Amino acid sequence: MQPFYNEQQNMLVTTVREFAAENLAPLANQVDEKEEFPMEQLKGLAQLGLTGMTVPEEFGGSGGEYQDFMVVLEEVSAACGSTSTVLITHVSLGSQTIYHGGNDEQRQRWLPSLASGEKIAAFALTEPATGSDALALETSLTRDGDEYVLNGSKLFCTNGAVADVVSVFTNHDKDAGHKGVTAVVVEKGTPGFTINPQHGKMGMKGCATAELVFDNCRIPVGNRLGEEGEGYKLALKILDSSRIMIAAQCLGLAKGALDAAVSYSKQRMTFGKPIASRQALQFSMADMAVELDAARLLTYRAATLYDAGLPHGKESAMAKLYASEAAGRIASKALQIHGGVGYFKPSAVERIYRDQRVTEIYEGTSEIQRLVISRALLGD
């Protein structure tokens, strides 16, 4: 337990840790090896009310603040990186986009089934030619009476292969720059909407990444989130807050690696003694623990600011930047402590080492986080 967590958060830690140990960790290697979407695991999380976290009860959610979701994600991520990515995408990207961008009718239409876990949400922003310039969008949106016609494609869409509801960011007016970006909701089964699953990822293999293609895809004007031109502001708002949850995911990955290293060091014998008795390894694990706690404190600060309704963009970027890179260093040291055993499957640290790498890329690369932080410092 963390001394700065309140009673409710400590209860969440206990509940989710027990669930993860029984239902997530034993299947994590299978999810990774088979690129298997963790549907049953997600249903279990839904039964605990975790798919509805941060969504108000009036819209079918279980409520809770970002601090609460942070502690949940650390425990889920420590057990299975892919499952944590699915949960983050569903809650802090998919559901939160509808909650913050939608009106009450849209919230009532989509959020209850998402909060209950009956349906799965996704968030479609990245395109083949955008990369870090994620809002230089080519996917077009054209008004035709009471409908919009959507054309273009999205890439690397997490949960995209299984999602029922996708928040899609489009460009309705290229000449208007960022003011031409508009967000709409596209539901699975809409004519002209094709899903192409993407395989071959280095890590996070179970989170059902897909290319989404829109070919004269018609959706009601009532599926637009906010007004035309408000999509840019909405996307930045969601990314700022969701970076806190990526940082929390990194805490879990780092915790899983550190726990594995400590456990293995007590069991592995060399020259008649456990390697945990070697001072070099003791110092290495001490450094890992310090980095993990520093990342945790940065993440908790960002979540606290968000929950208080205070500016948090710089702090979210700091948490995401430090936690992701610290998780990389911790996973690398954990693998080194395991030696050859850690280099082969089904070692947990081998999987964590691969899963961690994308946390320095998605939802803004480390370079983008440094750009956000430096601009805030310079007042740009």
Structure description:
The chain is an alpha+beta fold. The chain contains twelve helices and ten strands. A four-stranded mixed sheet has the order 1-4-5-8. Helix 4 packs antiparallel against helix 5 and helix 8 runs antiparallel to helix 9 (313-338). The longest helix has 37 residues, at 231-267. 51% of the residues are buried.
Strand order of the largest sheet: 1-4-5-8
Number of continuous helical runs: 12
**Rough outline:** globular
Following the backbone from N to C, one meets helices and strands in this order, namely HHHHHHEEEEEEEEHEEHHHHH
Helicity, as a percent range: 40-55%
Tell me the structural class.
Answer: alpha+beta
* Radius of gyration from CA coordinates: 21 Å
| Largest β-sheet summary | 4 strands, mixed
Distance between the termini: 39 Å
Average pLDDT metric: 95
The proportion of residues in beta strands is 5-15%
Number of strands: 10
Features:
12 helices, four-stranded mixed beta sheet, about 375 residues, four-stranded antiparallel beta sheet, alpha+beta, 10 strands
Q: Mind sketching the topology for me?
A:
Blueprint: H1 7-24, H2 28-34, H3 39-47, H4 66-79, H5 81-101, H6 104-115, E1 121-124, E2 140-144, E3 147-157, E4 165-171, E5 181-187, E6 193-197, E7 210-220, E8 224-225, H7 231-267, E9 269-270, E10 273-274, H8 279-307, H9 313-338, H10 340-343, H11 348-357, H12 366-378
Parallel strand pairs: 1-4
Antiparallel strand pairs: 2-3, 3-7, 4-5, 5-8, 6-7, 9-10
Helix pairs in contact: 1-4, 4-5, 4-7, 5-6, 5-7, 7-8, 7-9, 7-11, 8-9, 9-11, 9-12
